[in-house]
Amino acid sequence: MMRRRLPSLIALRAFEAVGRTGSVRAAGDELAVSHTVVSRHLQNLQKFLGVALVRGEGRGVILTEAGVNFHAQISQAFDIIARATTSARPTSLPTLNIWCIPGIANRLLLSRLPELTGPPRNWEVNLQPTLTHPDLSRAEADAEIVYADVIDSRGPLMAEILLRPRVFPVASPAYLARYPAITSLEDLSQIALIHEESTMQWTRWFELAGLDDLPPLRGQRLWHAHLAIEAARLGQGVALGNEVLVEDDLRSGALVEVISSSVYMETYQLVALRERWDDPEIVALRNWLKQVLSEI
């Protein structure tokens, strides 16, 4: 049989993720590589095929007509591989695949995973920190933990609010010793803040806190909440934290609340398919999350 000449599987995975998420950076987060690596895979794949698959639009990318057709077939191929992999694996240990926003995964859930994986369940749990949303209908994950406003539960998905934490500015004691004059919202808005992927979170927080005349916000962007909080711990500025992400740092004194506030924004939610909502593993996951978050 003649050997098939196929493109790199890694390049195909990168293209599939970009086409599904509409973002090179989001695809990189999902695949745990940098966005430059994803871009290189796309270039190599297009060179191999001799056709343009994507084009830039705004801050993201969209598929060309050829890219749309190719992506549909590649997605089907990956679905087949996923089903074959599931069928080939031994079924002695149930596996629970959870996609989760990085902050709560890294700073809270990781240390408590043995409660979910140990006796009497003895499950295998794959906890994947990512900002990308899985396609639950394609079994990319069993459940997702998100930080969001409202999840549309009218279709195939079910969502349950786990916690709506208070959100507040935090900084290290060393930073506040250098800038002791931060005593009001106006003072806070004038300094270099630590942002996530944009200034949107801080802008909304100031609005909810009651500051009407907001100046242009400054400061570094670190993309993820847990990175922004780590930068605050290192004395690099003021970040937005919440009761879930900074509880231990507040208790130890590594971080302090900069000014008193009472602002509530998004909620932590568990999302799963409606048809699987009462499956034993989803019920167990839901109860475990409620227990962990009730201790905050």
Automatic annotation (TrEMBL):
GO terms for molecular function: DNA-binding transcription factor activity; sequence-specific DNA binding. It holds the Pfam family HTH_1. The keyword Transcription regulation applies. GO terms for biological process: DNA-templated transcription. InterPro entries: LysR-type_TF_proteobact-type (IPR058163), LysR_HTH_N (IPR000847), LysR_subst-bd (IPR005119), WH-like_DNA-bd_sf (IPR036388), WH_DNA-bd_sf (IPR036390). Keywords: DNA-binding, Transcription, Transcription regulation. Residues 7-64 form the HTH lysR-type domain. Belongs to the LysR transcriptional regulatory family. NodD regulates the expression of the nodABCFE genes which encode other nodulation proteins. NodD is also a negative regulator of its own expression. Binds flavonoids as inducers. This is LysR family transcriptional regulator. It comes from Rhodopseudomonas palustris.
